[in-house]
Amino acid sequence: MEEKWCLKGQVEKIKVLKLEEMPLVRFTLTDEHETRENCLIKNHSLNFLFQVTEGKSIVIYGKRNNHNQFVVHKYHVN
Q1: Residues 5, 15: Cα–Cα separation, whole Å
Q2: pLDDT at position 21, please?
Q3: What is the pLDDT of residue 20?
Q4: For 36-76, what is each residue's pLDDT tens digit?
Q5: If 0-12 CB within 10 Å is exposed, 13-18 middle and 19+ buried, where does residue 48 land?
Q6: Which of 4, 9, 59, 73 would disulfide-bridge 31, Cβ 3.0–4.6 Å?
Q7: Cα–Cα nearest to 48, from 66, 8, 78, 75
Q8: 20 vs 63, which has greater pLDDT?
Q9: Within 10 Å of residue 39's Cβ, how many Cβ atoms?
Q10: CB neighbours (10 Å) of residue 62?
Q11: What is the pLDDT of residue 1?
């Protein structure tokens, strides 16, 4: 069974990797300990691009892929 995680931090470096019907978006999440996580979001990525700007604080829920990137399943903007 896959292990799922919940992370909280500030969004940095938002970049659209694939521009399709559902874009693939990459961003960096920095927590209060200055730990950086490389994150990917595809589901709800258009809403993510509309709601989230660099510097905003969010909570994300998801899992890690084989490349140690955090794949976001759900998010909440604080």
Answers
A1: 22
A2: 87
A3: 86
A4: 999 999 999 999 999 999 999 999 999 999 999 999 999 99
A5: buried
A6: 9
A7: 75
A8: 63
A9: 23
A10: 21
A11: 55
- Other CB atoms within 10 Å distance of the CB of residue 5: 11
**21, two tokens:** 């019907």
Q: Which one-letter amino acid corresponds to residue 4?
A: K
Q: 6 forms bridges with which residues in the sheet?
A: 61
Closest by CA to 74, choosing from 57, 61, 58, is 61
Q: Where on the phi/psi map is residue 52: left (φ > 0), alpha (ψ -120 to 50), or beta?
A: beta
